[in-house]
Specification:
CATH architecture: Orthogonal Bundle
Largest sheet: none
Structural class: mainly alpha
Number of domains: 1
Order of helices and strands: HHHHHH
CATH class: Mainly Alpha
Number of strands: 0
CATH superfamily: lambda repressor-like DNA-binding domains
Number of helices: 6
Distance between the termini: 36 Å
Shape: globular
Amino acid sequence: MDSTMNALEDNTFRSVWDALADTPEEAANLRLRSELARQIRALVERQGWTQAQAAAHAGVTQPRMNDLMRGRLSRFSLDALVNMASACGARVEISLQAA
């Protein structure tokens, strides 16, 4: 086995976000964006909105809503997701916990 395979096998991560991110701060941001996007998708599905309807509620274009529904997180900042959730009538809360 080559050294690359051994290095990959030795790495363990607390979450997929820790594996993808270069820093703990970036992992935290990815984790929050993922959770917020998941909850916005769930809200859209509960409301029975089409992507066009959801986009109108969220104040974005339908292609942008499609990006969200397909999980393209890299295209959304945390601020943008908070704004979209709020525009859809949701209240966003953040809590801190000890690491």
